[in-house]
Every structure is written in structure tokens, then in C-alpha cells.
Amino acid sequence: MVDLIQETPRVASLVLDMPDWHGHDAGQHVDVRLTADDGYQAQRSYSIASAPEDSRLQITVERLEDGEVSPYLVGEVKVGDKVELRGPIGGYFVWKADTTTPLLLVAGGSGVVPLMAMLRHRSAAGSKVPTRLLYSSRTGDDIIYKEELDRVASSGDGVAVAYTLTRSQPSGWKGYARRIDSDMVREVAWPKQQSPIAFICGPTSFVESAAGLLVDLGYDPLRIKTERFGATGG
Amino acid sequence: MDAAEAKVDGNAIGGLLSEIFTMEMTTAETTCASCGAVNAVGRVDVYLRAPGVVVRCPGCEQVLMRIVRGPDRFWIDLRGTRCLEFAAPE
After folding, report:
1. What is the ipTM of this complex?
2. Is the pTM of this model over 0.80?
């Protein structure tokens, strides 16, 4: 590990120097394995946050207090330490910049990580695909990549970002302030006539309700790609 | 944690399946032996918090696969998968 970026109080990005890395696609993940002194092993999946074009691999990890792996990756591991991982993994939840149909990204919590890799890939590849991100977090402090997302959204490059905060909102908050619902999706999502492709990532219940809302809007279920990471993530 | 939240999807076993099949398998397509639904592995329901991995059809919830990984071997039950289709490696 060559760098550690504290994204929010509970979320950090690990920047890894991988000499034998053969590249990845935006949306893929890696499996990180920890081995204790007594040989006990624990393994969890973490999404890749960096673009395929980036020189260094980055994964973003949310610390779960009762987790077996994440408290080590966010809190204990130090620059210079080695991390055992395998990957890249996945081919289903992947977006490539040569796609031309409008892109809709829907994130719940740290589900934004693989979608960030897609946005970074889009920028790095010079894609102009019209893109919208709907990103649900609990509080303002929990928004990962906020600065970068705001910068991308204000760059006039064809990316719009809509936030919703479900638990509490800072004073003067201009985004949504509720759980994702059909009115919100209707306002943010591309109309079905534009044949958009959608990627949804987050906790299982979030993903299933968001996917259901898009199907209700008339989206083709086969053009809604989902990645569910359970109640809490890895 | 309730059962609904314990559910993830086939993306979560991409690493395990690549160990077994030595290739990317989340884009492979499964045909459910029970209802005949065809789904990409990335779309199917997966339960990791069992003695092994349990894979279920997102349509009818029947078991498609059960995979147990021991210290030095795998046990794979594919009774619920009528067909597993994937591109041959280049």
C-alpha cells in the first residue's frame, strides 16, 4: 500500500502499487484476504474505485465495527504494508466507455465505489455519454468522494449528480432528504425512450427497491445491472 | 440479520467461480432446472452465510448451485442448474 486517503470518518481508500496488475474494467472488484498468526483466514470483496486508466489501483473500504476485515483495512493497515488480494473479478457489473446510451448510476452508501470507477473511466476515456448519478447517504458526512463528484458535476462534461440524505441534513441542504422513491427516480432517471443502461449498487434492500422503481418506470430489466452487498457490505 | 438482507448476488462469487472454472463466470448464463429461467450468474441470488455457498434462481428461488470449499477440495452440487453456458476462453 502506497497511500491511504480518508474519505469520510468511516471510509478510506487504499492506494496500492501492483507491479503485476494486468488492468481491470470499471465496476470490477477484488477479494482481500487476511491471515491471522494462527492461520485463520477471512476474505471479503471490495470494489475497485480507480479507473482502468489510472496508474495505481485504488479500493475504497467502509469500516464496519463488527467486521472481520474492514476494521483492519480502515484503521490498522499502514502505508508500506502488504495486502493480499486477488482479482480483478467480475464481468457482469461492468461499464465500458465505448457504450453510447445514456448512463444512470444509482448508489446507496459505499455502493458508490464501483460507480465512481465508472465515472473516472468515463472522464479518463473522454466519453461524453450523458450520465446521471443518484446517490443516497445517511448524513452529509457520509458522502464519499463529495468534492470530486461536485467537481465532475460542475465541469459541464455531461454528468449530473443528485444526492439524497436519509437520516439528517446539514443546514441549507439543497438535495433530497428522504429515501429513494418513485418521484425522485422519475425526476432523476433518463426516460426509458432513451434506452438508458442503469447500474445500481448498495445494500440489498436499497438495490431491490431502486431496481423495482426503474422497472416501474419502464426500464428493461436486462438493462438494469445490480450489485447487492447484503445488509452491511464486506 | 434477516434472510432478505443476507442475500447478495452472483457478483459476490465471481472470485470463487474463477478459482473453479479458471475464468470470469459472472457473465455465464444459468438455466434453472426448476422453472427454466435463464439468468446471468451476476443476476442470481447468493447466500454466503451458510455452511457453503447457496445460489438460488431469482425467479422461483429454487437452489441452482451449492458450493462448498474445503481446505483442499471443492464440492459442487449443480442439480438445480439445467445448463451453464459460457464463452470458451480465447
Report:
1. 0.91
2. yes
